[in-house]
Every structure is written in structure tokens, then in C-alpha cells.
Specification:
The complex is a heterodimer. By secondary structure, chain A is mainly α. Chain A has 13 helices and no strands. The chains are: A mainly alpha, B mainly alpha.
Chain lengths: 313, 333
């Protein structure tokens, strides 16, 4: 197990380096107009001087080596455009906690509502509750999130009688963003929970439990759910870590100063140091999430082992 | 016991009788005729995969209704420009007497869905937008399906390629799409083709991964092992054994990638990398409507395009699910 994890982490590091290098090269292909705010008014020499100051005139390998050198010393560099000459770390440290708080609240809500919903739907398969839940899931999955987010904001704020913009001090302004963010996850967890529960409920151990006289609810929640939750467990760490990324729609709709949309924003403004830092953050989070997910799966289901044979992800 | 003995006796008697039946000399020494029709009778039903699929699909009334809705919508978006009395989607409509543009006119008999901020007819813009969005959705889904299936099959079936493709996937999956989108929009001229290209460029890898996971599950089933043992070529195993088995899931995935593409067009427009203004799309219309959301009397500009969008995406979703259920032989009669 330990050996497997070491190997896997080593491989992940390699992947991370490749990702960063590719992104680094792609960024150097971007139009140079983006680096200057008043590109049209600048003369050729001014542009050259500007590029030289940013170290963009050096050959690509030199730039890459310099970048990794700084990275190894834990220096992510300073932002160039987004907030000129402020260390990237400081900008991110301002934004990440808010996104994590919002994201984990909505994810908790999704798990608390979604998993029991899927369980109940499987328990009363074909009955009213199942049909109602399916309708909800179909709606949430089929309609683009951008659309129902807008309507929740439009009618929700009128209903609650609050302002459309977010205010971290006012707890009421947390309700709508958290709710909108969790809807997609509720549908997701509900759908898969139902599906796995229905798959499990035809297995022999369920028949045995029924034969020995266990009640319907007891079988559903004590026997089936434990087994059905295993394949879902793999996604839960990833989902929690992904809250760092934030939601671009939600945060811009409610003007929340979080991480959502930051990446798009800095890419569009050619703030390369910021882009590299954020890509590094996201990729790390994604890779760690996968590893943690596998570990959680092993903990929940002792039959799974991450040894040589089963480790083929 | 007595009953069984009696039965046995009867059976024996009848057999003896049959043998002793008087046959003419001629009949005894001539070949029995081969009756093809009688031979076919062994096959107990005339099962046809696609007919059963259609039959099963037709039993789902909701899906059939939504399929009709989709087809009608599809036809209508293409017929609409040729109907009499339609406005040009890009023309700014003005009052002929005063030369003042019809700005933000609420839906009325002249402008069925009203006009937008600069006076363009929303009815025409919505159908043109729907047409463009559907074209984008279909094209992207097709490209994704072709490339995704090809790569996915190789990824899943050929063991040596698994490691390489998995690494490629890990890298591509972690490169932000926005970077690619911006680069593409910088290199190529913005427009429908660029949009389709950009969206397919990032979409195929998800499709390939999906196919790969499906292939992994059935790759080593006994019937494929048997095929390999009798020396079938890889190509034959893939086209005759693996892909037919996956028809239902692949169809579902394709059906879902159409609304998915339409939805991501909305997203791309939202982050400001969408189509140019003279090429309307649903994403663009929704985005324009969103900026007027605060003004209750102008909300029709948001509600109408979102309604059209929702009808289309829900239809594809439900029809895709129903079709994939119907394409699964387990659900056939």
C-alpha cells in the first residue's frame, strides 16, 4: 500500500510537471498585446523594453528553467496585471477561504440532501417519491446551470427581500448562492445513489437479510447503503478539494470576491504568473483528490486493495 | 406409479404403430423433401434488433412527444426565414415616420417576441440563434463521437497504449479550456466554424475516456476471448463484438453531448469568447437578456430564450435516455 502510494505520487508529480510546462508554453503563444494596457500608443522600442523587463525575450527553455527555479524556492512570483506587483500568494490567500467556505457549505448540503434522497428513491422505486425525484434530476441535469441560477437569483432575492449582491456579514445573502451551487450536486449524488442502490438490492445478501426477517428500512439503510456508497465515496474528496476552484457563475452573479472566474479573468488579461499559479493549484488539487478518493474507498470497503492488480487506474 | 406405467405402454404402442405404418415402396426409398419454411420455424420469433428498439422506444409516450417537439423545432428553425413577413435578425427596425428605432418593445402583434435594446426583432433572432446553437450542438457531438470512439476503442483495447493515453488525458484534462479558447480565437477568425473547432478540441477526450471505460469492462469477457482464440482480427473484434454491445451507451452519450454543447456555448459566451454579434446564438441572447434582468418589464428578453433553450435541452435529454433504454436488448420483449 505504502509502496503503491509512493509510486503513484511520483507519477503524479511527473504529470504535474508536464501540465505546467505545456501551459507555460501555451501562454507564451498568447498575443503580446495583452501584456500592455495601451498597446496601440506604444512605440516598437517601448514594447521591446517592456517585454525585456518581464523576461519574455529570453528563449523559452531559459524562461522555463527560471520558472521552475523560483517554484522550487516556493516563490510563485508577483502578479503583473491583475494587481500589479502584489505577490500571487497574497492574492490567492485573500480569495481561497471564501470560496472554500461557500463550496463546502453547498457540498455538505448536497450530501445531506442528495444521498438520503437517492436512498429513499430506491426504497420507493416506481412510487410517487421516485417519480418526483427523477423529474427533479432530469430538470437539473438537462437545463444548463446558467439558466436556473439566473432564475433563482431573480426570484429568490425578491422573495427574501434582500439585495442581489453578496455580503459576507449578512447570513441571509449566503442562502441563495449556497442553494444554487448545491442543486447540481444534489441531483448528481441523488441519481447515482439511486442507481447503485437499485443495483445492489438484487444481490444475494439482501435476499438473506429479507429471509431472516429484517425490515425494509433496516435493509435499505444498514445493508444496501453501506455498499452503495462505496463507488460514490471516490468522488467526495475531489468534490471537497474542488471547492477551492469556486463557481464562476455563482460568484460573478452575486459579486462574491472568490476564486471563481479568477482563472478566466487572468487568462484574458495575460497575467501569466497568476495563470501558472492557479493552474498549478487546480492540477494539484485534482490529483490529490483522486488519490484521497482511492484511499477513502479502501477504508470504506475492506475488500478493495490498491495493490499491484487492483491499482490499474 | 400405475399411471406412469400406463403412459409408457401407450407411448411404446404408438411408436410401434408408426414403424409398422404401411409405406409405399416409392416413399420408403426416396429422399425426404427439404422444406425451407418448416426449417425456419425453429426460430421462435422473427426478432429484429432495430425494430424491437423502435417498438420499445414508441412505448415511451413522453419521449415520443418530445422527439416530435424536437423535430418540429428543428424543421421550423430552418423554414422560418422563408416564411412571409419575417424580419432580418440583424436589421435594426425603425419607425418609418419618425426614424426612431423600436427599442425594447414588449411582445406585440408586430414583433411577436418584442425587440431588443437596439431594436432588432427578437422573434427572428431567437430562431436564428436556435438554428445556430443546434448546428453547433450537432456538429460538436458528431466530431466528438467520431474522434472519441476511435481513440477510446484504441485506448481501452490496446493495452500498450493505455499508459500513454492516460497520461495524455491527465495533462489535457488539467489545461484550462479558457487558454485554448483564447488562443484559438486569436489564431482563427471568430465564427461558427471556429466555435465548433474549439469546442470539439476539448470535448473529444471526455468521450474517449468514457468509451475506454466501457471497453475495459467488456474487453475480457468470454465471448471476446473466444473470438481472439479463433483468430479474429482486432478490427473485427472491435467492430463486430465490442461496438455493437455499446450501441445503447454510446447513443446516450451522443444524445447528451448535444445539449451539453449548447450549454457550454452559453458558458463561452458568458465569459466573453462567444460568437460575433451578427451571428446570433442562444447563449448570446440569454447573455443579453441577463444584463436587463433587473428591469422587470424587460425580463421577456431573458425568459423567452431560456424557455426555448430549456425545451431543447430537456427534449434531447429525455429522448436520449429513452432511446438508450430502448437500444438495450434487455428491455426488449
Amino acid at each position: 500500500m505504502i509502496k503503491y502510494l509512493c509510486k503513484r505520487i511520483a507519477r503524479s508529480l511527473l504529470t504535474l510537471v508536464i501540465i505546467l510546462t505545456v501551459v507555460f508554453c501555451l501562454l507564451r503563444l498568447m498575443p503580446i498585446e495583452g501584456y500592455f494596457q495601451n498597446f496601440d500608443k506604444l512605440t516598437e522600442t517601448q514594447i521591446q523594453v517592456g517585454l525585456q523587463e518581464m523576461g519574455l525575450t529570453d528563449p523559452l527553455p531559459v524562461q522555463i528553467v527560471r520558472f521552475y527555479g523560483q517554484l522550487l524556492q516556493g516563490d510563485l512570483g508577483v502578479s503583473r496585471v491583475y494587481r500589479a506587483n502584489v505577490p500571487v500568494m497574497d492574492i490567492l490567500a485573500d480569495k481561497i477561504p471564501l470560496s472554500i467556505r461557500l463550496g463546502s457549505m453547498s457540498l455538505l448540503l448536497a450530501l445531506i440532501v442528495g444521498l438520503p434522497m437517492g436512498g429513499l428513491m430506491a426504497r420507493f422505486k416506481g412510487k410517487f417519491f421516485d417519480k418526483f425525484g427523477t423529474l427533479f434530476i432530469v430538470f437539473i441535469q438537462a437545463v444548463p446551470a446558467a439558466v436556473y441560477y439566473l432564475f433563482i437569483q431573480m426570484f429568490g432575492t425578491e422573495l427574501l427581500g434582500i439585495k442581489m449582491t453578496f455580503d459576507a456579514e449578512d447570513w441571509r445573502s449566503w442562502i441563495l448562492p449556497v442553494l444554487s451551487m448545491s442543486l447540481g450536486n444534489i441531483a448528481y449524488y441523488g441519481m447515482w445513489m439511486r442507481r447503485y442502490m437499485v443495483d445492489e438490492s438484487t444481490k444475494d445478501y439482501v435476499r438473506l437479510a429479507k429471509a431472516k426477517g429484517a425490515g425494509g428500512s433496516r435493509i435499505t439503510f444498514r445493508h444496501i447503503m453501506r455498499n452503495a456508497i462505496v463507488p460514490l465515496a471516490q468522488y467526495i474528496p475531489t468534490s471537497f478539494l474542488n471547492t477551492v476552484i469556486g463557481s464562476i457563475y455563482i460568484e460573478s452573479l452575486y459579486s462574491i470576491p472568490g476564486m471563481g472566474g479568477l482563472l478566466v479573468d487572468v487568462i484574458k488579461r495575460s497575467d501569466n504568473t497568476m495563470v501558472q499559479a492557479i493552474v498549478l493549484l487546480y492540477a494539484t488539487v485534482g490529483i490529490i483528490g483522486l488519490i484521497l478518493g482511492d484511499i477513502l474507498m479502501v477504508i470504506l470497503d475492506p475488500r478493495i486493495s490498491l495493490g499491484k492488480k487492483a491499482g490499474g487506474r | 406409479m400405475a399411471f406412469r406405467l400406463q403412459k409408457e405402454k401407450e407411448l411404446q404402442d404408438s411408436m410401434v404403430q408408426n414403424l409398422q405404418r404401411q409405406l409405399s415402396e416409392e416413399e420408403m426409398f426416396s429422399f425426404a423433401e427439404y422444406n425451407e419454411e418448416a426449417g425456419e420455424k425453429v426460430d421462435f420469433t422473427n426478432y429484429s434488433y432495430w425494430r424491437s428498439t423502435v417498438q420499445t422506444f414508441c412505448r415511451n409516450k413522453l419521449a415520443v412527444t418530445l422527439l416530435c417537439v424536437t423535430i418540429v423545432l428543428l424543421l421550423f428553425t430552418f423554414i422560418q426565414p422563408y416564411l412571409p413577413g419575417q424580419y432580418d435578425p440583424n436589421k435594426v427596425n425603425m419607425d418609418m415616420m419618425t426614424f426612431v428605432a423600436y427599442r425594447n418593445v414588449a411582445p406585440n402583434s408586430q414583433f411577436w417576441f418584442g425587440t431588443n435594446v437596439i431594436g432588432q426583432d427578437l422573434w427572428a433572432r431567437i430562431w436564428a440563434g436556435t438554428r445556430n446553437s443546434l448546428i453547433i450542438g450537432f456538429s460538436v457531438a458528431m466530431v466528438e463521437a467520431c474522434v472519441g470512439i476511435l481513440v477510446g476503442v484504441l485506448w481501452g483495447y490496446v493495452r500498450k497504449l493505455d499508459f500513454i493515453f492516460t497520461e495524455i488525458y491527465n495533462v489535457l484534462d488539467n489545461i484550462p479550456n479558457t487558454i485554448l479558447l483564447i488562443l484559438i480565437s486569436y489564431i482563427l477568425k471568430p465564427g461558427m466554424r471556429t466555435m465548433i473547432f474549439a469546442m470539439s478540441l476539448t470535448g473529444w477526450i471526455q468521450m474517449a475516456r468514457f468509451i475506454r471505460n466501457q471497453i475495459l469492462v467488456i474487453r475480457d469477457r468470454d465471448y471476446n476471448m473466444a473470438s481472439r482464440c479463433v483468430g479474429s482480427s482486432t478490427k473485427k473484434i472491435i467492430t463486430k463484438n465490442l461496438l455493437p454491445y455499446l450501441v445503447s451507451v454510446i447513443m446516450l452519450r451522443i444524445a447528451l453531448s448535444i445539449p451539453g454543447a449548447i450549454g457550454s456555448e452559453v458558458f463561452i459566451t458568458y465569459i466573453g469568447l462567444g460568437l460575433p454579434l451578427e451571428v446570433p446564438s442562444l447563449g448570446q441572447l440569454i447573455n443579453e437578456g441577463r444584463s436587463l434582468m433587473m428591469n422587470a418589464s424587460l425580463r421577456y428578453q431573458l425568459i423567452i430564450p431560456t424557455a426555448v433553450l430549456s425545451v431543447i435541452t430537456i427534449s434531447f435529454y429525455v429522448v436520449g435516455n429513452a432511446f438508450s433504454d430502448a437500444a438495450d436488448p434487455k428491455n426488449h420483449m
